[in-house]
Design a protein that fits this description.
Elements lengths: L2 H21 L4 H10 L6 H17 L7 H9 L3 H5 L25 H9 L5 H4 L7 E5 L16 E2 L5 E4 L9 H4 L3 E3 L2 H10 L6 E4 L6 H9 L5 E6 L2 H4 L2 H8 L4 E5 L5 H4 L7 E7 L20 H19 L2 E11 L8 H10 L3 E3 L8 E3 L2 E4 L1 H4 L4 E8 L1
Parallel strand pairs: 5-6, 5-8, 6-7, 8-9
Antiparallel strand pairs: 1-3, 1-4, 2-3, 9-13, 10-13, 11-12, 12-13
């Protein structure tokens, strides 16, 4: 592909990404993979270049663009060489018409930028949300230690106890160490959230929103495969991934439990007042993960954000009924919005006098309300909020 043809390919992909963002369609990664699957003529260099162009334009545009072409013109505003490729040659984008307007640049849609600013995320803090994320691994201490690993690239330690950081794009999933369960891909902020749980051997721990089980596996390693972990979710497809992952990781203390939406407590009746710790890794806006999924900010609406808040409050209240006296409730979201973090915990404590905040100490993060907030700018991690509450 010529450089100009790569630009036109990225524009076509962007049109699909924009349509998917408006209609709640597939993620950009899947769209890009599907697009190239039917275009075998594109080599690895073409794929890499087109992907970089597409994601560069996504990161540049705050509001959802009118079209892929407008998004690419936004990117070209600061790149004369890119603008010159709009030359109308075969397979190239048409020349830029007089008065043709690019999409607006920005961090996010205006309403969302305002919400972030109200949560003290602006300037460099906001800009860092759209930077390129590194690749973090968690060494699975059920099978290995950092000293015993023989990796193709050694990685650098981060703030989490068992984390190693590698450059973006490192093909970790092809490594034997990953295929054999010696390492798991997990961002440092997520690993630190697991450290806040302080899970110990012999305890009973409930992971209330386990999903595919990344944090569940970290908890099993912290507990040295001694005790009991109940991994719950309402999404059968996501939870189905946990079993094979647990086998690969050598985690033997995990029980999966599929819950019925709206009837979660009936499925957890045997655990009322019995869990040593309950982790609520709540569904959220994902504002802290834009480095990996920048188009996600185009999918969010004020109505969706409000709905996330309702679900988060419901989940914390469910979790509170599972914690034994003296036990721990840990709340975490990959969001930097106070409405999904500090404000949720303040509201919970106001309606639950039987709990008190126990602000955790970590090697990263800063206090935010009764919890800690980690951010790409300040900590080099995904954006995260985590709080620990003790049942009195």
């Amino acid at each position: 592909m010529t450089p100009a043809a790569r630009v036109q390919a990225a524009i076509e992909i962007l049109d699909l990404v924009i349509a998917a963002a408006r209609d709640n369609g597939p993620a950009a990664d899947k769209i890009i993979a599907d697009w190239f699957r039917t275009r075998r003529f594109a080599g690895s260099g073409d794929r890499r270049a087109v992907r970089e162009l597409a994601y560069g334009a996504i990161r540049r545009c705050g509001e959802i663009p009118q079209s892929g072409r407008a998004a690419m013109l936004c990117l070209a505003q600061s790149d004369a060489a890119l603008k010159a490729l709009f030359d109308g040659s075969p397979h190239a984008p048409q020349p830029i018409a007089e008065g043709e307007l690019p999409a607006d640049s920005g961090i996010a849609p205006h309403w969302l930028e305002e919400a972030l600013a109200a949560s003290d995320i602006s300037g460099d803090e906001a800009a860092a949300l759209l930077s390129r994320a590194p690749l973090d691994l968690r060494v699975n201490t059920l099978k290995a230690s950092a000293d015993s690993l023989d990796l193709a690239e050694p990685g650098e330690p981060t703030q989490a106890r068992h984390a190693l950081r590698l450059p973006f794009g490192t093909p970790v999933e092809q490594w034997a160490a990953h295929q054999n369960g010696l390492v798991e891909i997990q961002d440092t902020a997520s690993q630190l959230a697991c450290e806040v749980v302080a899970a110990s051997p012999g305890e009973t721990v409930i992971d209330l929103c386990a999903g595919a089980g990344g944090k569940t596996l970290a908890l099993a390693a912290a507990m040295q495969n001694r005790g009991r972990i109940v991994a719950c979710d309402i999404d059968r497809a996501r939870l189905s991934h946990l079993g094979p992952r647990a086998v690969r990781a050598g985690a033997t203390i995990i029980e999966s439990q599929l819950l019925n939406p709206g009837r979660e407590l009936s499925g957890l009746a045997e655990w009322l007042d019995k869990a040593d710790a309950v982790l609520v890794d709540a569904p959220c806006s994902g504002t802290g993960t834009w480095r990996r999924n920048p188009e996600a900010r185009w999918r969010l609406s004020p109505k969706q954000l409000a709905r996330y808040g309702e679900v988060q409050a419901q989940l914390i209240d469910i979790a509170a009924q599972l914690v034994r006296p003296g036990g721990r409730l840990i709340y975490a979201t990959c969001s930097l919005l106070d409405s999904e973090g500090a404000d949720q915990i303040a509201s919970f404590l106001a309606r639950n006098p039987g709990f008190r905040a126990d602000t955790p100490e970590l090697a990263a993060g800063r206090p935010r309300g009764s919890g800690l907030r980690l951010s790409p700018c300040h900590d080099g991690t995904d954006g995260f909020f985590v709080a620990r509450l003790l049942r009195i």
